[in-house]
Fold this protein.
Amino acid sequence: MSILSDAHFHNEEAAYAWVETQVWPEGPVCPHCGERHRIGKLKGKSTRIGVRKCYACRKPFTVKVGTIFEDSHIPMRIWLQAVYLLSASKKGFSSNQLHRTLKVSLKSAWFLSHRIREAMRAGSLSPPLGGSGSSGVVEADETFIGRKKGVPKPKGGTAHKHAVLSLVERGGGVRSVHIGNTRADTILPIVNENIAKEAKVFTDDAATYYNKLDGFAGHESVSHSSGEYVRGEVHTNTVENYFSIFKRGMKGVYQHCGEKHLHRYLAEYDFRYNNRVGLGVDDSARAVKAVKGVVGKRLTYRTTNRKVNDADDANKANGEGS
Ligand SMILES: [Zn+2]
């Protein structure tokens, strides 16, 4: 029996029950009033799967309320297949491939994958990288990807590309941000906010503004411009390895991505890296983590992206590859 033979990938009731276990580990919670005890399960032939009734506020609900699954007509078992595929594929899984594999429309495939990326997005309350209990070393670097709309390619430089800043804790997690430019006043606040003060920060010398870093346990850089890549423990190979997974995936699987969606693709790659096998998280456990992240993401999705624009992008498949 393969993993994909599990009942929650095929049976709608099993799919709901599985999601309920992840989202409500201590039993159902009314999304309308927070009630945990006086809740009943509605049964009967005409009742939709997973419907509960709260006897405190008298309202019905399912586990979908307030999650990325809300307002979707796609069966839960198909959602779970999509979550698994996106969680397990190291370089990503394109909307086109999802469309063919799950036999949903291309537009649905696109909605599914962007909502799942939203579920994968880390909360803003995550502790800073490199703090106590970690390796205490964080590498910081920027990379450039894609093509800005309407910006001609300069003779040299990267002004026509989108910039990404990634911070990688050695032996730990990554945090990536799509940044509008690579000026010190853009980068330093992100570094200060996301790296613990007890950490040592390693960078390359391209970013001389990192010399303005202070308050950390240390800051060292290797001089890539003069051919120096490793000096003892000082190097940025970990963050560069991360960039290579991200870039190979974006190039091979997604090909192009609109600027306004870049942060979600970054969330997807960060999520898989933060929950990788090397940290003891296998494909199934990673999919469970993604499903645990579905709660509270729906509103963010709505406010950051007007539905009209999304539908437009979906029709064009947003330039994703096959
Ligand atoms: Zn209630």
The CA atoms of residues 52 and 310 lie 32 Å apart.
